[in-house]
């Protein structure tokens, strides 16, 4: 029985480490094969303090947590912009360096490690036998589970998932991707240090072998096996990996030396088979064991999405139609509106060169409140580059961008977005693996649950904020007529539907200035009307809109003012009628005079 | 100031050069696999071990000559390398979709663990001596090196140059490069991308196998010997860039080995590997902070992107418009 208690302890402690890795790997998508070495930091700190200063193991572990947190945050800095392959390499190197340094320090026992630690003492109780460890280990695991769940299933977790799938789009919604990545690395590493400290206390030793690279890989495998972004999965994974050995030993009766080898062979092959059969892990993301037991399967209701489907809440605006049909009257009216409106965003002399290519040359653009400005021009003219320059995705070589008098040049894209200048993407860039509602909720600004401190210590505020966010997001989904699709994963939408959701997402930021990159391209004719009606409604709310568009019908209907771009330069501006009546421009754009 | 004799420097340089030829060859093979197929082939170390164990078996159990055994061993390992792609990675990647990279990585990890322990079960866990041709030491300008070193370097150079020439001048090379840039597009012009992947695995494994044979001759053979080489292969391939010429990868390999050797002047030999990793972390930190320019050099794992359908009502678009 004592032996089985030992296995249960081991499961709980391995699960603790795996849960913390799952926060990093599953939610934030940051691959790390160095997790055991952060455990080593905690373990060694605990062991060193216990041996040399007779610190209690909890105090020593707390010390190790701080250490691991700091190291993890530092490691996050080079990890910020790396792709998956690079992250594996970086964390592998970090793992090797940490273990290498530990071995190099004589007072940490060199390669022999620190052994014969005093028996762990928990408030006067000696944790001598495996049975004594059951409750503390369970409590530790639950604590880490609770923290990971708080973070993962919250507005912060939503942002982390956004970073996992599309950091650029997430940043464009005003999220400080940099800070999120550093803090999630730090927190996951700190939790790993916690697990490592307990593991060392349980083993009564801290050696380089215990926390070596192969243990990192084991923890990594547990997370993948259990299912990324599924915390219950990590506990299940830990149980399977730990119990494989005793179960095999009972089932397959062979000599002990061969049994351990055979066990590893089976373990390795099981990983291969699992990846083949169930690459998303035993318990995939969003799968809840509790709901499954109660018989509630699947997420959300299935909705038929036929080709004829049209957003429900859109009423065709009679007035707009009148405006649309009477182009000449509409044009002069809109031109007047443009001239009388106050300037919100003003760029002057913005230039950008990529090597010999001039992407933007001395751009001067004005966007005015309550109007729609269009940016037209042939492909390669640099229209999307203008958006990138305005939002800080690309830093210009010179020039100035003033938003209500505030200089935007030099600000990161997320800061620009928080200032009230938000863009949509030509290729939509929804976060595919979360629902439409979550996509839109992500865009809502200043959510209390996006602050780690509030998240941990003021749950009520987070819940209230989340309810408010949800209502707002549903409102915007309703605005674009996609309320029925709230629970559908964004990846399941058709292209036109995803464009509508992306409009709702941009709207939900409640930014003053919206830059829409080809909002109507690639969608069906009957959708175009819907989309245009929505954009006009946005304008009527007093927002400032700038669209990049190829379709001159669209520009003709929407634009109050039009800029014509060629080879990075603005060569003409005016109403669309003025532009299309200029023979040279007509030739530049259409190829015919 | 540490007193370092010129002779020590010369010896370290020579050692670094020969060791670097191994790293370079391993890196070139790994880069070919990762760069073209995007598979994170962590089981590269397994094929390394298998090549030398097969050769070992042919020499000492079947009593064939050293050279025949070595060639057969490498060929068999290469076949297994190709087989892993065909039987394990390909179906797995097709099934996993967007998360293929991680799924392949974990499966490769599993294969590595299972394979290493199978080797232990079949051949035993002990370190074994592997003899071939007679060992000979050469003395040149105060430095010492072995005939194995020379052969190893020579075979490395020959293989890498052949690989580079093949990529540059042959139809197969063009096919591999086309697949590397865009496997889906390559398929549309009649290239069998799946087969090209398998070929890359075979060629990459040959690089690993040849390194393994010389390593085994110079030192000893044990089932865990595949781990360090795969780390170095990985490191060298990344530093050089996985879509670059094998010659460049080879040179970077020599460079890494020289750093490692020179660092032994100041550090005990146990820590030279740590020194290399410290340099690597520094380099990665530098590139990450410098910006994302580096990322564009590497192909992201190919995944079907939701390409927007062509505009249906855009009557003004001229034929020259490209989407």
What would you note in describing this structure?
The complex is a heterodimer of chains A (593) and B (323). Chain A has 24 helices and 12 strands. Chain A is elongated. About 5% of the residues of chain A have low confidence. The N and C termini of chain A lie far apart (90 Å). Chain A has 593 residues and is of the alpha/beta class. In chain B, helix 2 packs antiparallel against helix 3, helix 5 crosses helix 6 and helix 10 packs across helix 11. The C terminus of chain B is likely disordered. Chain B has a two-stranded antiparallel sheet with strand order 1-2. The longest helix of chain B has 32 residues. Chain B is built from 11 helices and 2 strands, in the order H-H-H-H-E-E-H-H-H-H-H-H-H. Chain B has a single domain, classed as ABC transporter involved in vitamin B12 uptake, BtuC. Chains A and B meet through helix 3, helix 4, helix 9 and helix 11 of A and helix 3, helix 4, helix 9 and helix 11 of B.
